Amino acid sequence: MQMYDLPDSRGHFGPYGGVFVAETLVHALEELRAAYARYRDDPEFRAEFGYELEHFVGRPSPVYHAKRWSERLGGAQIYLKREDLNHTGAHKVNNTIGQALLARRMGKPRVIAETGAGQHGVATATVAARYGMECVVYMGSEDVKRQVQNVYRMKLLGATVVPVESGSRTLKDALNEAMRDWVTNVRDTFYIIGTVAGPHPYPMMVRDFQSVIGKECIEQMPRMCGRQPDMVIACVGGGSNAMGIFYPYIPYDSVELVGVEAGGEGVATGRHAASLSAGVPGVLHGNRTYLLQDADGQIVETHSISAGLDYPGVGPEHAWLKDSGRARYVTIDDAEALAAFHDCCRLEGIIPALESSHALAYAAKIAPTLPRERILLVNLSGRGDKDMHTVAEKSGIRF
Amino acid sequence: MSRIQPVFERLSRERRKALIPFVTAGDPSPAHTVPLMHALVEAGADVIELGVPFSDPMADGPVVQRASERALRQRVGLEAVLGFVAEFRRRDDRTAVVLMGYANPIEAMGAERFAARAQAAGVDGVLVVDYPPEESAAFAGVVRAHGMDLIFLLAPTSTDARIAEVARLASGYIYYVSLTGVTGAATLDVSDVAARLAAIRAQTSLPLGVGFGIRDAASAHAVARVADAVVIGSKIIQEMEEAGTDAAIERARRFVASIRAALDAGAEPARAHA
C-alpha cells in the first residue's frame, strides 16, 4: 500500500486543482474550507451523515454478481455496485446530503445547484425538501427542453428551476450561472456542486462524501468473493461516482482503476466528451484540469448520448491519477454504451443509466479477454428510468 | 516599459483622476475595435481595459457575457486581440492598454509566448480574472520580465491578509471591485468604498481604481472623490447595444466624454503617489 494524501492544503493534485476564481469568490471559498475542515472528522457530523445515508438513502447499497452476463461473455466475472438502488436513483444524493448538512451548520438557509441531465438537481431538490431549505437549480435551457421530467420532478420537490440562456445553454453554462448567483448572494447561500470539479475544497469534499461507495466495496468484496477485485471500472464525466469508488482503492496496488469517458460518435469525429483521453490541461470552473478546448483556449461543446457525461472538463484528481498512472482512462462510444444498456436490461433485469452503461460496456468489452477467475467491479452509478426517452428514440420509438 | 505608471504620474501632477473604460475586443464587430479604442481616448480615456473574449466568463454579468458571445461568434480570441493592440499602437503610443480576461486562453497560448507577444504588441498590463495571487506567482514573474504590469482585483470581502498578498505581487494599479457580485450589478455605496480604499491604502502606494456599479456621471464623480481611477464597463457596452452597430462608436464616445467631464469637474487636490 502506498501513501496518498492529496490534495495539498491549497487543493492541488500535482499540477491540477487549485483555486482559480475571481477575488469576489475567494472569501466564500475560505469560509467553506474552514467549515469543512471543522466538520470533516467531527463525530456528530459523521454520525448524522451516516444516519441519513442509512435511513434516507438506503445504504449500504449491495454488490451484485452479474452471473448470466458474465457467463454469456465467457471470461472475467462482473460484479455491480448498486448505486442505482439509492433513493433518487443514483450516487448523486450521497454528496448532496453531505453538503446540505454542512450548509445547515454554516447557517445558510438557501442552496443552489447546477445540473445537466437533472440528476444532481433532483438530488439537491430532494435534500432541500428534506431539510426545509430554499432551493434554486440552474439548468441550461437546452437541457430544460431535453429533460422535461426531471424539471417537473424538481418542481414537485419545491425547487425553482432557472433556465440558463448563455453560452451553449448546457451544463457548463449552468455552472457559470450558479457561480454568479453564489458570488452575489453568498451571505445566505450555499452552492452544492454536483461533481469532483470546481475550486478547492469542492473536488476533495465531494470525493470524501462519495467515497462511501468504495469503502463499502472494500468490506463487501471479500465477503462476497473472498478478495478485492482485480479491476474497478466507473464512468467519468465530471467524475464523482468514479472518485467515490476509486478513492478508497488507491492504496490497493493490485487493484487496477479504469475510468470510462464518453466517446460520443467516436473520438476521431471530434464529437465526444473525452476530456482526459483527448483534451489538454487548462483552467475552467475554478480548477486546472484536462479540458476540451480549441487552439484559442475556448471551451468547445461536447457530445454524448448520456447527458451526465456531457462536460468539457473533468475533476482534477482524475487528471492527476491519469498522469501518475494510478488510474487509466478509456473511451466507449454511444453505440457501445447503448448495446451494454440493452444487454444489462435483458440479461440481468437491471435498467442502467446511460452514464453507467459506458462503464458496463467497457467491462463487457474486456471480460471475454480475461480468465474466468478475474473479478471486475463496475460502479452501476444510476438507474436508467430517466433515459427511457433517449433510448426509445434511438430505437425509432415515440411515446 | 509599461505606460501605466507614467499615466498615473502625469494625472497626479495635473490633479486629475484616471478614466478607465472597459470594452470587449471584437464587440460589436472586429472592425469596430481599433476605431472604438481611439474614440475612447478622444473622449478622455487614460487607460483602456480591453476584454479578451472567453467562452465561459464566470465572473461577468449578462452585459459583458453578451459582448463576449458576439465577439466569439466572429472568431475573436486572444490572437485577434493582440492584433488589435498592435494596430492601435500605430496611432497611439501614450494611452495604456490592459488586457482583461480569463486564464485559459493565456495558458493555451503559453504564458511565456503570450507575454512576449503582448509586449511586442504594446500591451501595458494584464488582468486575469481567475488568477488570484496564490495561483499567479510564476505568471507575475513572466509578465514583469516582459515589462508589463499584473493587475489584481480586490473585493469588499478581501481580508487584510489578502490585501497584503495582492500588494506584494501587484504593479500598475489595483482594481477594487466595489460590489460582491458580477460585472454590471446595480448599487454602490460610496462611503463603504471610501472605508475599504483606506484599508487598502494602508498596505500599498499603488493607485486604486474602482469598478462595478458605476453607471453614470454622478456615480463616477462620487467614486472619483475617493479613488485614483474610475473603471466603467458594462454601461458602455449597454450604450453601444442600444445605439446599434452603426452608431456604437459615436455613442460610446459621447458617453465616455460625459464621464470625463464629471471627473474633471470634481477635481480636487490629488493624492501624491510616493
Describe the structure.
The complex is a heterodimer of chains A (399) and B (274). By secondary structure, chain A is α/β, with parallel strands linked by helices. Chain A has 16 helices and 14 strands. Chain A has helices at 23-39, 43-57, 67-73, 92-105, 119-131, 141-146, 148-156, 171-184, 202-210, 212-225, 240-246, 275-278, 316-324, 334-348, 354-366, 388-394; strands at 12-13, 16-20, 63-65, 77-82, 110-115, 134-140, 160-164, 189-191, 231-236, 256-262, 280-284, 286-291, 327-332, 375-380. In chain A, strands 3-4-14-9-10-13 form a six-stranded mixed sheet, with helices on both faces. Chain A has a four-stranded antiparallel sheet with strand order 1-2-12-11. The radius of gyration of chain A is 19 Å and the shape is globular. The N and C termini of chain A lie far apart (52 Å). The model of chain A has no long low-confidence stretch (mean pLDDT 96). Chain B is of the alpha/beta class and 274 residues long. Chain B has one domain: Aldolase class I (TIM Barrel), CATH 3.20.20. Helices cover 49% and strands 14% of the residues of chain B. A nine-stranded parallel sheet of chain B has the order 5-4-3-2-1-9-8-7-6. In chain B, helix 2 links the parallel strand 1 and strand 2 (47-51). In chain B, helix 4 (78-89) packs parallel to helix 6 (111-121). Residues 268-274 of chain B have low confidence and may be disordered. The interface between A and B is large, with 38 and 42 residues.
